[in-house]
Amino acid sequence: MRKRKKNSIHNSQITLDEFLIKKFKEKIDKVLLISNKNNYPIVLYRRTIEENEVSIEEEIATVSEKYVVVQIFTHGGYLPVLFREQHIFTSDEFPYWIIKRSRNMVLHCLENIDEFITNYNSGDFDL
What we know:
Blueprint: H1 2-38, E1 42-51, E2 56-64, E3 67-76, E4 79-90, H2 94-101, H3 103-121
Antiparallel strand pairs: 1-2, 2-3, 3-4
């Protein structure tokens, strides 16, 4: 009986993750359409990794054309912009990648997307 309950909880979690991924993908696809219509990338999230007096290292995810691009770069002070990493995902791949990293990042992206779509629909947006 105890084992059955544990499996049920595990199956519920998988279902919840799949539901979250499905909704996230739908929202990314919607933002991709807006991005393509306006020919501007749209930021999903921006995160500071490290900061000092002279420079900052950031991670930024944007949607553009038909891809989600995640870049890690350093900038500031007298340093030229240095791109350390760049990951390119389809709208199908990105939700799985980000949910493996952090559910909080998924929620952060969803909040940003919802805010952007609300502002876009009301005509109050800045690309």
